[in-house]
Amino acid sequence: xxxxxxxxxxxxxxxxxxxxxxxxxxxxxxxxxxxxxxxxxxxxxxxxxxxxxxxxxxxxxxxxxxxxxxxxxxxxxxxxxxxxxxxxxxxxxxxxxxxxxxxxxxxxxxxxxxxxxxxxxxxxxxxxxxxxxxxxxxxxxxxxxxxxxxxxxxxxxxxxxxxxxxxxxxxxxxxxxxxxxxxxxxxxxxxxxxxxxxxxxxxxxxxxxxxxxxxxxxxxxxxxxxxxxxxxxxxxxxxxxxxxxxxxxxxxxxxxxxxxxxxxxxxxxxxxxxxxxxxxxxxxxxxxxxxxxxxxxxxxxxxxxxxxxxxxxxxxxxxxxxxxxxxxxxxxxxxxxxxxxxxxxxxxxxxxxxxxxxxxxxxxxxxxxxxxxxxxxxxxxxxxxxxxxxxxxxxxxxxxxxxxxxxxxxxxxxxxxxxxxxxxxxxxxxxxxxxxxxxxxxxxxxxxxxxxxxxxxxxxxxxxxxxxxxxxxxxxxxxxxxxxxxxxxxxxxxxxxxxxxxxxxxxxxxxxxxxxxxxxxxxxxxxxxxxxxxxxxxxxxxxxxxxxxxxxxxxxxxxxxxxxxxxxxxxxxxxxxxxxxxxxxxxxxxxxxxxxxxxxxxxxxxxxxxxxxxxxxxxxxxxxxxxxxxxxxxxxxxxxxxxxxxxxxxxxxxxxxxxxxxxxxxxxxxxxxxxxxxxxxxxxxxxxxxxxxxxxxxxxxxxxxxxxxxxxxxxxxxxxxxxxxxxxxxxxxxxxxxxxxxxxxxxxxxxxxxxxxxxxxxxxxxxxxxxxxxxxxxxxxxxxxxxxxxxxxxxxxxxxxxxxxx
Length: 806
Prior knowledge:
Radius of gyration: 27 Å
Distance between the termini: 32 Å
Number of strands: 47
Shape: globular
Helix content: 10-25%
Number of helices: 10
Structural class: mainly beta
């Protein structure tokens, strides 16, 4: 290869891979998260440029101040909001700009600020954004100073009026901030839209619509040059178009053909990049990268969902935006870990309940292969809480919805738009007119995806349904009626927008396990639990909220009917707030298939046995009980004909699934020892699994999910803390208080154990385990080195784990 060609390739690789995790962004985009000053409380003078913030705390964004606080029974957020503190907070950042930027445009992009953010630059007021989930931009250009002169950006965040959310919201600049520098002619904010109107295995037609912004005084004759690269960095199509760019916004369209395209799918989420350059007076003045996928899909009345011509059942989950002990402060690795855990279960879909998500979530879903329902609102004009978004609906709903569509419409993982969740206007005629308006706003910007609304009263008299505006009938719950939907809604297509609402506490078991219970209701179970100060729910899949159903009840119906395109289960992970079926001292949910710390509950393995091709044999519960207690032993399995259970090498019988069974069960008296399950197919052993009676707690075992992390100040290692007996068996009821000591190039970002009623702070250097397990989240600093995390507890052998930062 010639030297010139080598240099060209290196330049391309630098550009290409620097944008490998960005959906649509200008080349001159700088992360603006570091070295902000923060004050918790009201400080009206802080907006002034000369205000002295030397005494304020210095921190890096993203930041959630609520997660740093203590749980409070009297919090105005209520237990629904996680019983954590809101309030008012101020952020300030001082920065300089080079003199060479003086003739440029400079913008600040906020991915999300909760709640009611107001922004000033050098004392000049830029505006307010009430909705805490919207991404937005301000133009800083008219007010900036250059060279050695300092600039001050100020953000006030007001989350003092509560309750304003039905779940934990967090408080602060909890998503990333970016500083964007452009020339006077540039691709506008969210200024590309890529569609693939014709796709086959042989070729794909690509339409690229562009908005070019000209902020100079004169019309400019420019060239728009776009090159499309495949996942390996190879050029597959290109186009250069002349354009006379008038002042403000000009539009252009470029059409490409990609031969033998790699199709985006759940199994192989193939991604392309379009790099668009604006050329004026012979030089490149802007470079803008758009990541996209090529795929085609449809929702069919009879066949359900088809992706690239193949039938796919959407096996999805709903999730709120908090990251457990990290709160709502976005962290890409924490999101990635959640998606990895879900993917291993066989999950292939995410619903962004009930709001615009962090951009990083969609970037990861693009990369990892998830079918996303992108949701806009939890309420419209009618309130669910006194201080929620209904206060801002009239002024802001159109802008907020438009910005969601413009921001997210290039993501190949986004397949469905949702205009709302369990909207109160379902019950009156306003639901019809508002639904038509919202769908019209979306269709004006994107006609390539269907629109739905999550209807918790899916019947023909529902006013949102009666609008005729929805492409998909979104139904929440009502699993007993699934089979009758084609008769109730003739000619319509369906998606389970929210299903299940089962309840479990990881590692807790009540006998017997084969009776279905609906909580909360005024029955003996809840009353007894409250009286005994026992706020647990049995982890056998036999308890649900009264509006919902168990996991097995629901999945049996969903898998039965092809016309049901799939479901989004409530929920993938436990989340802070909404602790159904209890109130205080419960402070986080019981709905998750996975607990708040990221530890799977038992039903996780039912889904793994149903949704994946992995060979599964999973038995539970633990094997530590009082002698003689009658215990129900469940087994989830697949790729086998039968399971035989042994206790201390004595057979307790062979069980086989009958009909639509999803598990098998033995009811046996407890005897200490070893419980062993053997699955067989055609008489041959497939898998063997054992559970042993654990002895007294003897030692701590630390296991890091990643022993090598990046020295970027953001990367994480999730360290599982296990309390074990002398033989290494997990002690299933251990609640030891673990003390953490850390040294080296990292710090403890959070601690947790998955217990819905723990009142311990998430930001601490100690935490109890819950049912034998705990978690410490380790975050890197911005320097290479080694992190040593040591865990100690009275009477236990300590443990140390080493994490390399590089």
